[in-house]
Amino acid sequence: MVYTKIIVENSPALRGTVKISGAKNSVLPIIAASLLSYGEVFIDDVPELKDVNVMIELIKFLGAHCTFKNGKLKINVDIKDVEAPYELVKKMRASFLVMGPILAKLGHAKISLPGGCAIGTRPIDLHLKGFQTLGAQIDIGHGYVEARAKRLVGKKVYLDFPSVGATENIMMAAVFADGITTIENAAEEPEVVDLANFLNKMGANIKGAGTDTIRIEGVKELKGTEHTVIPDRIEAGTYMVAAAMTGGDVLIENVIVDHIKPIIAKLTECGIDVFEEGTGVRVKGKRNYKAVDVKTLPYPGFPTDMQAQMMAMMAGAKGTSVIIETVFENRFMHVDELKRMGADIKIEGRTAVVTGIDHLSGAEVKATDLRAGAALILAGLIAEGKTIINDVHHIDRGYVNIEEKLKNLGAIIYRVD
Ligand code: UD1
C-alpha cells in the first residue's frame, strides 16, 4: 500500500492568479438529478475530484452511460436498478442523493444507509420525512432504506432544519409528483439554486429556490439539457484565506461574488483588503491581521465548510477569536491537529476559543476530513519548518490540483509517497 503525504513548508506571501473549479456540492446533486432525464445531459465545468468519480460510478451502476473528459460530462440514462449498494454508498454520503430521483422515476428505491461520518452523526431523517409526506412508504432494515410509492403526491413539507441534502433530495423526488409540493424552511444555498436551475432547464417547474420556500409543480417528463456548474465558493474561500494569511496578493478568478459575501465580510473585518476584479476577487493580505469571531450558519451565513480554514487563519491572528459551529455537532476534529502545530485552542461544546500566536510550528498531522485537511495546508503555509500531512485522500475528495494551484502562487508544497 502506498501512503501519500502532502508536505507544506513555510512559504512566501502568495502572488498570482488562481482559477476556481466548478462546485463539488453543486455537481454531485446535478449528476444524481440526471437520473431523472429522458434525454442526453451535458454538464460543463465538472471538477475532476474523487467524489465526482464516485457519483459517476454510482449512476453507471444504476444504468447510466457516462463519458467524462476535460471537465465535460455526458450522461445518457436508462435506469435499470433501484438499488444503490453499500459498496458504493459507503464511499460518500452524498450518494444518498440518488434516492429522490430513483423514487421519482421508478416508484421504488433501495439505498444503503449512509454510515456515520467524521463530522457528526449526520442523520437522514429529514430526507425520509419529506419522501413520506409525499406519500412514499419507507422501510429500514438490513442496512438499507427502501422507499416505495406508485405515485408521489405534492404536499407541504416543513424541514425542522434547512438541510441542504434534504432540500435537494425532496426537490428531485417531487419533480414528477401529482400537483404542487412546497418545501418550507428550505436550504437557500447557491448549490440548491444551481440544482433547481438544472432541473428547470430539463423541463421541471420549480420556483423559489434560493429562498426559504420552494414550490415544485409536478411535470410528466424531463428532457436532456446542457448546464455549466457554478464556481466552488468553498474552494474560492480557501484560496482567499491562503492569500490573506500569508500577506499575499492573489486574484481568485471565476467566482460569483454574491456567494462569497460572508467570507469577504469576515476577511475584511480581519483587516484584509478584498476587491472585485472582473469575474474574480483580489485579496491583499497582511501578516498581522486581526482576530475575529465566527459563527457558522446556513446560507447566507458563514459556511461551515469554511470553519476549519478560518480557524487555521485565526491560529496565527493578533488576538483571540471565538468560533461557534452551529451546523454540525462534531466538526472540530482539526483542533487537535492544529494544536500539534502549536495552536492555542480551547473547546467547550460547539465553541472554540482560539488565541492567535506569532509562530505556528510545522509538525506531522493528519487530515481528518476534507476541510480539516485544507486547514492544515493553510496552517502549514505560515508555520515554521515542515508540515507533513497524512490521510490526504480526504483533501482529494474536494480540491482540484491543490498542490499545483498553490505552487503556481509561490507556495512550497509537494506530495510524497
Ligand atoms: C451539505 C454539503 C456539505 C456542507 C453541508 C452544510 C454536499 C454534498 N455537502 O451536506 O459540504 O457541510 O451541506 O452546508 O452538498 N440533518 C439532520 N437530518 C437530516 C439531514 C441533515 O438532522 O435528514 C442535520 C445534519 O446532521 C447537520 C445539518 O442538518 O447537522 C446540516 O446538514 P445538511 O445541510 O443536510 O448537510 P449535507 O447536505 O449532508
From TrEMBL:
GO biological process, one term: cell division
Modified residues (2-(S-cysteinyl)pyruvic acid O-phosphothioketal): C117
Reactions it catalyzes: phosphoenolpyruvate + UDP-N-acetyl-alpha-D-glucosamine = UDP-N-acetyl-3-O-(1-carboxyvinyl)-alpha-D-glucosamine + phosphate
Pfam families: EPSP_synthase
Segments forming domain Enolpyruvate transferase: 10-406
Name of this protein: UDP-N-acetylglucosamine 1-carboxyvinyltransferase
Function: Cell wall formation. Adds enolpyruvyl to UDP-N-acetylglucosamine.
GO molecular function, one term: UDP-N-acetylglucosamine 1-carboxyvinyltransferase activity
Subcellular localization(s) per the UniProt record: Cytoplasm
Natural source organism: Thermoanaerobacterium thermosaccharolyticum (strain ATCC 7956 / DSM 571 / NCIMB 9385 / NCA 3814 / NCTC 13789 / WDCM 00135 / 2032) (Clostridium thermosaccharolyticum)
Family that this chain belongs to: Belongs to the EPSP synthase family. MurA subfamily.
Record's keyword terms, sorted: Cell cycle, Cell division, Cell shape, Cell wall biogenesis/degradation, Cytoplasm, Peptidoglycan synthesis, Pyruvate, Transferase
